[in-house]
Structures are given as structure tokens and as C-alpha cells.
């Protein structure tokens, strides 16, 4: 007889489906790794910034020691960049870690967490991981419906997750709407504003969310070095929140959750304006490349503010899986989103121009099959 270990709410977790690694696709489909193109995890197509590589090389000598548990230098750099005191910052092993820490620090089993339909998969996992109740507000045009989310908040709600821009749909909520939402959220509810793709926003859409943190004691802004900064494999992200909230997060956080190489690389990347600029320009051009191709192929897509696009590849519930398989056989890895309740769609990251072109060609072939 098999024993049921652990609490029921842990056994009920549906594991996160990550983008397939290149080596795995090469093995499965008998392909040469060098010919495989991965556009599945919204990674930076330019890879690790040179500045970060140099900082890591210099930091290797100190790896015999534990990392700085308080991340003094990185917090200092972030404090300067965002104009908030260093004790308003929590470092995370990726911003995923921040989302999990927030749930652990703020929500008791049986209380509720609000997030949107079609929003980031980790919100459901973090909710389930603490045995909280899921309140999933219906999406509007594939994005967050903030009035619906506000209405969904209950007395037992402790946390609201918002992704802006959202993954996997790429939708964006303008600053004024978020501000209006924050002004109405009850004070017993903490809002986690997950801005993993903030750096890809056009100038006119940018706003300083750190300024809202000064106004709203129940706001936590989450950012990452995984996307625009090209450090996904290192795992480093951070939260900005007022000290009362930050102090709680730090009680739950593992003391050495961000390693020394990651801390050194993040400081270098944060100050590497050229790298960010190059990435933003490539992203704008790549987005145009995709949208032109989708229009030509007659495919519906959700206008995206991130470094990826959600595109509808068929009308039946098998379409995403079918087209994805054809793409894999052609050596192109994208992201099926059936798990998000979007089985007719695929999410594709914006890569280098030649990678985007290879995807478009493979997609054209797949659709003709
Ligand atoms: C990629 C992503 C993250 C961050 O991932 P980390 O690598 O853990 O920092 C967070 N939120 C959203 C919406 C994302 O798409």
C-alpha cells in the first residue's frame, strides 16, 4: 500500500512546465544541438552581458566563502537606481523566489490569493504551495481586468498577484489604471506587482513603480535580472517594498538565497546601459518581424509589450500541440500554453533576426502540413 506523504494541498500541485532545454530536444528528435533554436523561455537572445562575465570572473576567487547574506553592494546599487533606501529591498533567487517568499510570509493556509486568468503560472503554484485558496479573476481581452480583481477580493484575501506586462499573453496595464486599483485595494491585502518585462516597455509606457511603493505600504514591486539583463541561469531578482513588509520577507528568505556570482553579475548588468539599449532595439525590430509575418499568414496574435508574442495557430484544441510538435521536429522550440487554458495558441520569444526568421519559416511549414 502506498502511503500518502505530505499535506493534501502539496500533493495537488501540478508541477511547473518549463521550456524544453536544447539538449533534451536534440536527444528526443535526433537533431544537432547547434541547429536548434530556442524561443521558449523569454531569455535574452544576446546572452550574458560582457560586463557581467567580467564581474563574475573577478568574483570566482571568493567562492570559497559564503555570499553576502545581506547583498550589501547589490542592494546599494539598486537603492541608487530606484531611489529607495536599501532596507526596502529584498533579494531573491530569481523573482520566482520573491513570489514564493511573499506567499509564505503573508498567507496562512485556508486564506485566499487573487490572480488573473491567463496570468503567470507561478501564482497558482505559490498559492497551492501554502495551501491557500485560489481566486482566479476572469481575464479581459487576455489581460488583467482590475475592476474584476478588486471585486474578487474577500475578507480572507491576503495577496493579489499582478503581472505587468503579463506572461504568457503580453498584455499591459497603463500606469493610471494600476494607480487607481492600488488606491482602492483594502489595506489588509498586499499587492505583488510583478514587472519581469518592465525594461522592454517603450519610453511612453514606462513609469516608476518604485514611487508607488512610497505611497502604498501594501505594495511589493518585483523585478528580475532574467529577461532584459540576460542572467536567467544565475537566478537573481528583487522586491521593493516598505520596511515593514521587507522585514517580513527577510524572515522567510533563505539567508544565502542569492549566490556571490549572481550578486556581482547583477551589479554589472544593472549599470550596462548599452546592453539594455541593444536588447530593447532588437526586441522592437523582432516584434515587427513577427507581427508582419503573422499578418501575412492570417494568424491572430495578442499585441505584446514583452519580449514574446502569443499567437493563435489554429481553431481546434489540438492546434498548439500539433504545431508545436512540427516546430520541434524542425528544431525550433517555442512554448505551448495549453496548461494556461490556451490550447490553440503558442508563445514565442523574440530572438535575433535570423532566429525569428527561422521560426517564421518553420511555422509556415507547420501550418501547411
Ligand atoms: C520570467 C518571469 C518571472 C521571473 O523569473 P525569474 O527568472 O525567477 O526571475 C517572473 N514573472 C513573470 C511574469 C515572468 O514571466
TrEMBL record:
Cofactor(s) needed: pyridoxal 5'-phosphate
GO molecular function: histidinol-phosphate transaminase activity
Signal peptide location: none
Domain Aminotransferase class I/classII large: start-end pairs: 35-363
Pfam families: Aminotran_1_2
EC number per UniProt: 2.6.1.9
Enzyme type, top EC level: transferase
Catalytic activity: L-histidinol phosphate + 2-oxoglutarate = 3-(imidazol-4-yl)-2-oxopropyl phosphate + L-glutamate
Similarity comment: family membership: Belongs to the class-II pyridoxal-phosphate-dependent aminotransferase family. Histidinol-phosphate aminotransferase subfamily.
NCBIfam families reported for this sequence: hisC (TIGR01141)
Protein name per UniProt: Histidinol-phosphate aminotransferase
Species, as recorded: Duganella levis
High-level lineage: Bacteria, Pseudomonadati, Pseudomonadota, Betaproteobacteria, Burkholderiales
Gene symbol of the encoding locus: hisC
Amino acid at each position: 500500500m502506498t502511503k500518502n506523504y505530505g499535506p493534501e494541498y502539496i500533493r495537488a500541485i501540478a508541477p511547473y512546465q518549463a521550456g524544453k532545454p536544447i539538449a533534451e530536444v536534440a536527444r528526443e528528435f535526433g537533431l544537432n544541438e547547434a541547429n536548434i533554436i530556442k524561443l521558449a523561455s523569454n531569455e535574452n537572445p544576446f546572452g550574458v552581458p560582457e560586463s557581467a562575465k567580467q564581474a563574475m570572473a573577478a568574483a570566482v576567487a571568493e567562492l570559497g566563502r559564503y555570499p553576502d547574506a545581506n547583498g550589501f553592494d547589490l542592494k546599494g546599487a539598486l537603492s541608487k537606481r530606484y531611489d529607495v533606501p536599501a532596507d526596502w529591498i529584498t533579494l531573491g533567487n530569481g523573482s520566482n523566489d520573491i513570489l514564493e517568499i511573499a506567499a509564505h510570509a503573508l498567507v496562512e493556509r485556508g486564506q485566499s490569493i487573487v490572480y488573473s486568468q491567463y496570468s503567470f503560472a507561478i501564482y497558482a503554484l505559490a498559492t497551492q504551495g501554502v495551501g491557500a485558496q485560489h481566486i482566479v479573476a476572469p481575464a479581459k481581452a487576455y489581460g488583467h481586468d482590475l475592476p474584476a480583481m478588486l471585486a474578487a477580493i474577500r475578507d480572507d484575501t491576503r495577496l493579489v498577484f499582478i503581472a505587468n506586462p503579463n506572461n504568457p499573453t503580453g498584455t499591459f496595464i497603463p500606469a493610471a489604471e494600476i494607480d487607481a486599483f492600488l488606491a482602492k485595494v483594502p489595506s489588509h491585502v498586499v499587492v505583488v506587482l510583478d514587472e519581469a518585462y518592465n525594461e522592454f516597455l517603450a519610453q511612453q509606457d514606462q513609469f516608476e513603480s518604485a514611487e508607488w511603493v512610497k505611497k502604498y505600504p501594501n505594495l511589493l514591486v518585483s523585478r528580475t535580472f532574467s529577461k532584459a539583463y540576460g542572467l536567467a541561469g544565475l537566478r537573481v531578482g528583487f522586491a521593493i517594498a516598505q520596511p515593514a513588509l521587507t522585514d517580513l520577507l527577510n524572515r522567510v528568505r533563505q539567508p544565502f538565497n542569492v549566490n556571490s556570482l549572481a550578486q556581482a553579475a547583477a551589479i554589472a548588468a544593472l549599470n550596462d546601459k548599452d546592453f539594455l539599449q541593444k536588447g530593447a532595439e532588437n526586441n522592437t525590430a523582432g516584434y515587427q518581424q513577427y507581427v508582419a509575418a503573422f499578418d501575412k499568414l492570417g494568424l491572430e496574435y495578442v499585441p505584446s509589450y514583452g519580449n514574446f508574442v502569443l499567437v493563435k495557430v489554429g481553431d481546434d484544441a489540438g492546434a498548439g500541440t500539433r504545431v508545436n510538435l512540427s516546430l520541434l521536429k524542425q528544431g525550433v522550440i517555442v512554448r505551448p500554453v495549453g496548461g494556461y487554458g490556451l490550447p490553440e495558441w503558442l508563445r514565442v520569444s523574440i530572438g535575433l533576426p535570423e532566429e525569428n526568421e527561422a521560426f517564421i519559416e518553420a511555422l509556415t511549414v507547420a501550418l501547411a502540413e
